[in-house]
Amino acid sequence: MKAKQILTTIGLLLVIAAVGQPQATNHALPRNHAKTVTSAVTACMDAMESAKLEVHSMMVVKGGSVVAEEWRNGARPDVAHELWSVSKTVTMAAVGFAVKEKRLKLTDRVVSFFPDKLPQNVSQNLSDMTVRDLLTMSCGHDTDPSMRIREKEDDWVKQFLAEPVSHRPGTYFCYNSVGTYMLSAIVQQLTGQRIVDYLYPRLFQPLGIALPQWQESPQGINTGGWGLFLKTEDMAKIGLLLLQQGKWNGKTLLKKKWVSMASSALVESRPAGSRPEQIKEWGMTKENSDWLQGYGFQLWQCRHNAYRADGAYGQYIIVLPERQAVIAVTAKLGNMQAELNLIWEHLLPVL
């Protein structure tokens, strides 16, 4: 074959490959900026900076339109931000799609997916652990094993399954990032795809989100509980999908029943890494803490009848059904309750 023919053939193959690959429509949310909300966002971000809370962006969606948006401290609308544990909520969506497609049930036992990675002695509690228990952070671990598992190159699934399961699954809340990694591993085991690829035609493409970066374990599995990068507007779109009970542009993506369960208070909750006896010592109550309102499927309940995806250092997707609004925030700060307090103080009155 002549060189010219070879180049032509390669070009045609590239075109065919491009046509065969679904592309995300780059559609932005409609804008309908409201002066009162814009002023409130500016005041809220000013108050955060006065309190030494480094905020990067804030976007408010109401009535399906962006009514206010602002970026600071070098953040930009076109640059993806590390979401930390907001990633968990996107993993929850992957599980929701697998359930919708009847690949998976909430009652499926975790051990059933990895028969070749089980410890020599499988305890009754480990045997009883279900997909639902992973989703509600109540898989039975007494403490979060995530850091010690992540530090090793050994198979993370195998390490997770070797951890002692001290409590009967479903009875004890313990925030567990590698528990969410297990959900990612389960979906990949069932579909043969990383969840970022599985979600592309089901979630990212319909919402107009370009295929995002998502970190992987040494075994090539998306980390699930962390490691996803999205733009602020992408976060707002995911919040709007939840607010609309799984619908987007009139089409049902996630089932309404799934979103309703995910966003309910299914188990008691407390801050990551804390124990029940510490809550009273710290003076935390349901009146002053957004971490004691209950937990659903990888979503926290908030005060003011809201719920949220949240990630370390101040990343939030806050959904307020009664106000038909979504607030997306990126930041790099330590006191996330102070951040929420300022959001409630400045934004609730104008929504």
Describe the 3D structure.
There is one protein chain. The protein has 351 residues and is α+β, with helices and mostly antiparallel strands. The chain has a single domain (35-61, 78-350), classed as DD-peptidase/beta-lactamase superfamily (Beta-lactamase), CATH 3.40.710.10. It is built from 13 helices and ten strands. A hairpin with a 5-residue loop joins strand 7 and strand 8. Helix 2 runs antiparallel to helix 13, helix 3 packs parallel to helix 8 (177-191) and helix 3 packs across helix 9. The chain starts with a helix and ends with a helix. Residues 1-22 have low confidence and may be disordered.
What's the pLDDT, averaged over the residues? 93
Cα shape = globular
Radius of gyration, whole Å: 21 Å
- Per CATH, the architecture is 3-Layer(aba) Sandwich
Largest sheet: 6 strands, antiparallel
The largest beta-sheet arranges its strands as 2-1-10-9-8-7
Q: Into which percent range does the helicity of residues fall?
A: 25-40%
Please count the helical segments: 13
- How many extended strands? 10
Low-confidence stretches: 1-22
**Termini distance?**
67 Å
Order of helices and strands: HHEEEHHHHHHHEHEEHHEEEEH
Question: The CATH topology, please?
Answer: Beta-lactamase
Domain count: the total is: 1
Our estimate of the beta-strand percent is 5-15%
CATH superfamily: DD-peptidase/beta-lactamase superfamily
Class inferred from helices and paired strands: alpha+beta
CATH class equals Alpha Beta
